[in-house]
Amino acid sequence: MFKNILVPLDGSKFSQQAAVAGIDLAAKYGSKIHFLTVTKKPSARVTQSIRRYMNVEQIMGEPEDLVEEMAREVLGKAERHARKKGVKVVKSTAASGQPARVILDFAKRSKADLIVIGSRGLGEIPGMLLGSVSLKVSSLATSPCLIVR
User: Fold this and answer.
1) Burial level of 104, CB count in 10 A (0-12/13-18/19+)?
2) Is 39 helix (H, G, I), strand (E, B) or coil?
3) Any bridge partners for residue 4, and if so which?
4) What is the pLDDT of residue 121?
5) CA dihedral over 65, 42, 50, 131, signed as positive or negative
């Protein structure tokens, strides 16, 4: 039924549940699954908060490095789960930009025939990865969307 499933992730509880649902569908239908994490440039206030956190935790580098590491961790966890469940074709992409627009453009370019997305994202600081964009994605997508709560 579905050949190419796109699952946008931000690490929130809802996106983790979307990953599980997307993986289950991919395993059931023998579909490809593609995980996508979208980062956006943090505001000055968020950057300051990240710098304070990095300073307290004695983490070296720039705030952008921490965001990229978080994105890799979110994608890696989903990939491992998909492979464990027997999904044969698993891909991941980290992109940057306006989350809803990037997701919609990616879905079109990758010919996704289903988008599985969490109903809500993370708060402002960790929400740099995706945020709550499910309404916009589901309203503008040309393929079916499954919103997971």
Assistant:
1) buried
2) strand
3) 32
4) 66
5) negative
This prediction has a pTM of 0.85
Label residue 119 by pLDDT band (50, 70, 90). confident
Number of structural domains in the chain: 1
Say how far residue 20 (Cα) sits from the centre of its chain.
13
Contact between 133 and 100 (Cβ < 8 Å): yes
In the three-class reduction of DSSP (H, G, I as helix; E, B as strand; rest coil), residue 18 is classed as helix
Taking residue 83's Cβ as centre, other Cβ atoms within 10 Å add up to 12
- In the chain, % helix, strand, coil (3-state, to 5) comes to 50, 20, 30
DSSP state of 49: H
* Domain boundaries, position 70: 4-148
Which CATH number do you get for residue 31? 3.40.50.620
* Structural contact between residues 89 and 33, judged by C-beta atoms closer than 8 angstroms: yes
